[in-house]
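queue> pop job 88
queue> type: inverse folding (structure -> sequence)
queue> payload:
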């Protein structure tokens, strides 16, 4: 297998050029209800269900350090009467590592759920940073 290494890339006909450093190095879209399962992902080896609204994303290829950026979304839950959009946050009590990120999904303290975690139907987690 050959390897092509580039610092920048773009379409052959011109247009916007992108930095290889700027692309997402890991992402996942998963159903966090029942038996959790990824719908699609990149550089994610597995998911762990740690309890209601509490998941760990395990990376196939580790980041160079645990200082990568994280973003994500949560939408809907298994209870059809509460089809809200909530938050996704890196778990402050469990610091990220180069090989895994613990995340929590729920509602903020100033909303209906008063900070309650919930199993989201649509969970997304996106990571940018340098791989090892």
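queue> result:
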């Amino acid at each position: 297998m050959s390897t092509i290494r580039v610092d920048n890339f773009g379409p052959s006909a011109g247009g916007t050029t992108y930095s290889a450093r700027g692309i997402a190095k890991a992402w996942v879209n998963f159903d966090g209800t029942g038996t959790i399962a990824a719908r699609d992902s990149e550089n994610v080896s597995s998911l762990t269900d740690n309890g209601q609204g509490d998941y760990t994303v395990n990376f196939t290829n580790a980041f160079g350090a645990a200082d990568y950026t994280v973003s994500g979304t949560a939408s809907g839950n298994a209870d059809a009467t509460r089809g809200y959009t909530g938050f996704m946050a890196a778990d402050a009590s469990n610091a990220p590592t180069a090989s895994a990120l613990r995340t929590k999904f729920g509602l903020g303290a100033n909303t209906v759920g008063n900070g309650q975690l919930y199993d989201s139907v649509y969970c997304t987690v996106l990571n940018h940073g340098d791989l090892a």
